[in-house]
Specification:
alpha+beta; Immunoglobulin-like; 5 domains; eight-stranded mixed sheet; six-stranded mixed sheet; 41 strands; 28% strand; Peptidase_M14; metalloprotease
Length: 818
Amino acid sequence: MRSSLTGVGRARAVAAFVLPVVLALGASPVLAGSAAPALSGEEVVPDRQPSTAQDGVALLRVVVPDQAAVDRLNALGVDLAEYRRAVDDGIEVHAVLSPGEARELRGKGFDVRDAVPNQAGFAANQAERRIAMSAAATAAQRNDTLTPLRAEWFTSTDDRRFLSVEVKSSATDAETVLTATWDSGPGTPPGSGGTATLSRFTDAGQYMYHRFDYPLPVTQAPARVTVRSSRGGSVTVPVTKWLGERRTPPGRHYVSDFVDHYMDPTEVTRRITGLAAEFPRITQVVDLPYRTNGYRRAAQAQFGTVPASTFYVTSAAYGSQGGNDVSLALIRPETASAALKVSVTGKDVVVSLATDASGAITSTARQVVEALNADPAASALLRASTYRGDQGDGLVAAAPATRLTDGLKAPQSVSREPFQMKALRIGAKRDGSRVGVFLYCQEHAREWVTPLVCVETAERLLRNYAHDPRTRKIIDDLDIFVLPTANPDGAHYSFYDYNMQRKNMTNHCPARSADPASRNSWGVDLNRNFSVGSLFDGYSGASSDCTSAVFAGPAELSEPEDRNQVWLTRKYPNIRFAMNTHSYGGYFMWPPGSYKEAGRETLPRVDLGTENYFWEASRHILSAVQERRGTAIWPGRTGPVPDVLYSAAGNSADEHWYNRGIIGWDFEVGADLYDAATGRFQPVGFQPPFTEGHEEAMEFSGGQIAILEVARAYANDRRRPDSELKVTGRDDSSATFTFTTDEPANVYYTLDGSRPTLNSRKLVSSGVREGAQRITVNRTTEVHWFSVDIAGNVERGYRPGGTDRNYRRERVEVRGNR
């Protein structure tokens, strides 16, 4: 999903404006010819009007995937600064753009981001300079406060050790520099392990915290790390081990490794129906009610040489339903002063072009389009359009009969009809009495490894049930739903037509964007089409542009693929856990998944107890991933989606959590691989060589099994939590305290001597990736409280809605005010 989670910024090829005379989809859909003029023709951007107010012109960051995309920006005449640097998702360049130009580039799929700091305008710079100078003078008189968030070491492939540190400074300006030093283990001198500068992490223009861009390789596991700020702040914290907990091993005869090649959705669906037939006692197939658009397209052909003389035709029927049999010819009549005429024989359409007194063709593209659309017989077969909204005033040329084609290349074994999506239900008792778990894969078409993860998990469960006690307990105690391909149409297109296809195949584009050269840009991003935190609610990370990689669709839940997910979770309300498996990058995330860019307003964050539950479960799940070949998902790539990646408006995990309370995670399989020779981490991509894809499927299937173990522990949890009140500070006028629990749980408390209930104050987090809040009282206070774990067990069996008095209580003393 490095979209999966960087689709926002993938620049698409910009069509050149010199076209071949005839372009049918049997050839490449990208228009050929000379380089495009600078944002010209129908793509003109309003001229800048120079003024001292800048008119919104700014130096903006643009992130592109490769040098070819930089070259396309140059070809478009974009005013690029002489700056570039490699970033995680490609190359960052800086461009001087007006608001209109920025919108235009975004419409072409370029990832135009925020302004380069201190480039917002002369007046703003001067004002900011005065404020900054004043603030700097004040800051020089005091130190900043450093809040440690995480400090961990871990091993990854080949047992190499790495260090990850996250620290938040109270000084949020870009001038604050944090430096970390660490030892070489217990008893070694401070700083003996090494030193490095942390990077300032911002998102949506807001400072989040400082961190290492990548985990740092270390020779020995550090015991303590010290972080110092250029403002004078300092903090020293212990370094804990991340992952590697001891898990119950499978039985001696446990079998795995059931996938040996990448599979298209037809193969995958056939595989799970075969499993259901082989294991009828503990499985069934669930046919999802909404059929997809299908792996099908209307047939098209395009005629012309430049935009003004270019038009294209689209069949009324899908190509597989007769559209591929339609042909169109443009003929020059033998006589002078001939009128424009359209004739139809069967499915062959002929346009006899108009001529003048000398016999020269006089028909324009617009006139041909209007004639075809006005003719009843022709319009029953096809619809004509000028090129991308052009007026079509250029003269057309004669062209031989050209058969329309849908351009689809999959073998006939791949049906062109609407796809019947199927989920495999696994469980010894499938009556809704067991806790349900929903595992779904391949929401994004190009993520070929992900359906293998789901298939491998299903195979492991069913083939180990008879002889592995751990597997038997999972299937006996849970109700498991496996949807191996959530985007079958798009995945077929990715396999056979355009491997970078992200979206489904439903084309919602108007004629301006529906020409043949746009065919790889059609479709809806299914992980932006759900109804919570969506583009339509004002959240960021999706687009209303039908050719954008993150097009949210014409409305929430417009797509049958997504309505199927919602139907499943409503039909089976016992589903309490879910896992959405994407690729790539090696992330492990949970809700919230989106925010509004203005003020970075996220969806409501999960409460502290649930957040701690996510973190605790992640250790078990990610340790299972690590067991295969040592791959560690980094601490910095673990957490709520906006904290570690970006905003993904309208994603499925938010849909299931906020609407139905389903505890949901997101995997991004395909963690970066460390190259010892270069000392750098290397990305693996959406479709790595199968040897790598196979390993990813094996390790993340282990993670899915671990999620089932977490769900089973939840289902069988009858243990009550225990909590304590901890005083963290005290002076003559106040006391500060917090609560700790022996397992992830929420704490409800009162400070006025009243009986605590579920409507009382709830302990919350101090901030993003920080621990529990600290509560300060100014006089001696009787604190009453109780805790409730995620499974609903209440401390001491206390009944918040009753009249019990067996809640926890403690007196917090304030010396000067008793």
